[in-house]
Amino acid sequence: MTEPNPSFFVVGTDTDVGKTVASLMLMRFLIRAGHAPYYWKPVQTGCLSPNDAGADASFVLKYCPEVHQTAADATGACFRTPKAPFYAARDEQSSVEVEDLLHKLAYLRKNNTLVVEAAGGLLVPFSRTHMLADMVQLAVERFGIKPILVARAGLGTINHTLLSIEALHHRGVQPAGIVFVNNKEHRTPQVMLQENMEAISTFSNYSVCGCIPHIEDFSNPPEEAINLFERIAG
User: Fold this and answer.
1) EC number(s) for this protein (predicted)?
2) Is 118 annotated to bind ligand?
3) Which H or E element spans position 231?
4) E strands along the chain, which residues?
5) Residue 47 per-residue DSSP state
6) Is 182 annotated for ligand binding?
7) Which of 186, 164, 184 lies closest to 175 in space, CA to CA?
8) Over the stretch 113-164, which tens digit does the pLDDT of each residue have?
9) Does the annotation mark 146 as catalytic?
C-alpha cells in the first residue's frame, strides 16, 4: 500500500447486512498487509455496554488478538435500544454530538490505520441535524477516510445498493468499493449473485469487489473473505 495509514468507513445499505463481519475481514486483511489497524464504532445501539457479547467492538476485537484495544476504547457512545442513533440516544435523555465524534476521529486518524464501522444504513438519523451519510461525507472531506459499502448478497440488494450509492453521490462521495455478504439463513444462488453484481455494475459503474460467504468459524475465516479486500485496500 502506498498510503501509510489507509483508513476506511464501513457503511451499509441497511441494518444487519454484515457490516461487522466485513469490518472484521478488513481488519484481518490490514493486519496481514503489515498494518496495525484501530477499530472504532462511533455509535453502538442495542446493547448495555461495549463489553456485551453482542456489541460489535467486542466481536471484532475477539477475533483480532493482535489488536491491543478494549471494547470501551473502540466505542464512541453506547445506547440500550436497538434504534437509529438519534432516537436511541433520545430515549436516554442524551444525544449524539457529531462534531464531538469527528473531533475524536481527527485524533485517531493522526497516527492510525482506521476501520470505522457505521450504525445502520446511510440515511438513518444520527443526530437532530445529521444523517449517518452526512457524517461519512465530513469524514471523507476532513480526513480522507474512504467509505466501503456493504450490502446483502440476495434479493433486494440491487435497489438498496443503488439507492445508497445515490445517497453518497448526492454528497459528493464515491465508495472505495462494494462488498456483498452472504448469510446462513438466506444463501444466495450463484445465478442471482451474478445478476445482482451485473445490475449494480451496469447502473452505477461500480463493480462489486466480491462476496463474503457464510463463515462458520471466525477464528479461521476462508481466505476469499479476507483476500477480496485486496481490490479495495491493496
Assistant:
1) 6.3.3.3
2) yes
3) helix 230-233
4) 8-12, 37-45, 75-79, 113-121, 146-152, 177-181, 208-212
5) S
6) yes
7) 164
8) 999 999 999 999 999 999 999 999 999 999 999 999 999 999 999 999 999 9
9) no
